[in-house]
Amino acid sequence: MKISFPRHILYLTIFTILMIVFSIWFATAKLIPMGKEYRKDRISLKKERIDLKRHKDFHKTTLETLNRTKTKNRLIIEAFENKFDPNNFKRRFGKYFIELAIHKTNKPNSHEWYDVYEVNTTSKITSPKSFYDFLDALNKSEWIVGVTFPIDFSREGELIHSSFKMQVYKKTKEKVIEKTKEEK
Hints:
Elements: H1 7-72, H2 74-81, H3 86-93, E1 99-104, E2 114-124, H4 129-139, E3 144-156, E4 159-169, H5 173-183
Antiparallel strand pairs: 1-2, 2-4, 3-4
C-alpha cells in the first residue's frame, strides 16, 4: 500500500509549511518587538497628552487671571505709564498748601523703577488734616506715588511746615529690554 501524492500537492504542502514557519518567525522576530515599541510609544504619548492638557489648563487659568487682573487694575496700569510732570503736580495739589515746592533729588538712584522727589510744603492750619487730605488726593492721582517716611512737621506760629520724600514710579521698558539683551 503505497500512498502516492500528486506532485503539486506535495509542493503546496511544503510551501504551506514554509509559509507557516516564516509567519511564525516573522511574528516573533519582527512584529512582537515592534508591538512592544508601539505599546511603549503609546504609553509615552498618553503621558505627553496628559502633560499637554495640564499645561493648557494652567495656561488658560493663568490667562484668565491675567485678564481679570488687567481689567481690575486698569487704572493702576495706566497710571504706571503716565509721565510725571512736577508743574502739573504743583497746580493740582497746590490748593492744599500755602506754599508747595517740589524738586528732583540729585542723589544717584540705584533703583530704575522710580524717581525720587523732595516735597516741601507750608500750610496755615492748626492740625495736619490738610496734609492727610493731600495724601488721600495723591492716592487718587494719575501717577503711582509712594510717600516715604519720616514726614517732618515743624510748627512756626500758625504755620505748619512739612517736608517729605516721595517716589514717583515710572515705566522703564527700555532699560529692562537693555538689561535682558546684556544678560544674553
